[in-house]
Structure formats: C-alpha cells, structure tokens
Amino acid sequence: MKVLGLTGSIGMGKSAVAAMFARAGVPVFDADAEVRAMQGPGGELVSAIEAAFPGSTDAAGVRRETLGARVFGDREALAQLEAIVHPAVARRRQAFLAKHAGAPLVVFDVPLLFEKGGHETVDAVAVVSAPPETQRARVLARPGMTAERFAQVLAHQLPDGEKRARADHVIDTGCALAETERAVRALIDGLTASHAEE
How many domains does the chain have? Predict the structure, then answer.
C-alpha cells in the first residue's frame, strides 16, 4: 500500500480534490471529518474537552466557535487540546489502514500535514494549489469569513510556495474542474502503476 498525504492551504480546493480521489475508488481518511465526528453529539472526545475547557460543549457536542476562541492564539491551550485530539485521530487512522490493508493506494487528507510533521508518516505528498487571488476570493466568499480572520488562518499555515516546493506532486485547482480531475486520475494511475511494479 502507498499512502499519499493530501494537503493545501485554506481555500485551495483540497476537499474537492479529496472527493475526486474518493470517486476514483481511492480510500480517503479525512482527518477533519474524524475530529468533527468525535466532537459531535455523543462524540468520544466531548467529555475530555469539556473537562479541560469548561463551557465549551453542550448537547450538540463541542461548540467549535467557543472552543476556537479559547485556544486561538494561546499556545498552551492549543497544546492541551491537541493532546486530547491527536491520539484519538491516530487511533482512527490506524483502524482506517487496517480496514483498507488490501488497497494499493490510500489518501490521508490532512490540512496541517507539514506543520504538524505528518509528511514524515506518508510515502508521498500532494499539495493542492491555486493562484493567490483565486484562493482569496474563495475564502472571503465563505459565511462569516473576514479578511482579518483569513490573515490569521494563513499565519498558522506554511506559505503555499513552500508547500509546493516540498511536495512530491502539485495539483492545480486554478483551472477547470475537469482538468483538475484528469490530473488526479493521472496521479492515481502513476502511483498505482509504480506500486504494481514493486
């Protein structure tokens, strides 16, 4: 099995590209989706997060905006939250790998792959990228997003140019969706062909 790490800065189209891999039959582990499930109603992390950050949860699970406000810009609080979340995500990732042990290729969809050292645990990294003006337009079109918040998010992510320089593969989303999908299919073919030869 080859493990491809999929990453990209906010607004680059990573979710759309992950969906393209899934449509092509490649199992995709979506780290953010796993976290949301574990923080949702009855989620396994809710009680631990409430204990560490009182008032950050309710019947619907973790109140993401409330929790975000508590940890954003506070390194100690963020580290405390990550110590709760990361081991749980790692367990789910191991279960995912066991479930798909026979697949020639799987994708780990991880927003902060380089920032958190996850690139060291995969066989190759694909970075999803688009021109800065395309990225900005996409992000600012999101409900509740402001230029200030966008700048804060970018400050916590490696610059796109650095990600592209460190990537094994770059997937362009600043073009027609069909073109991006063709690039994804070509990448899958290339990775699975090299797997078959090994």
Answer: 1
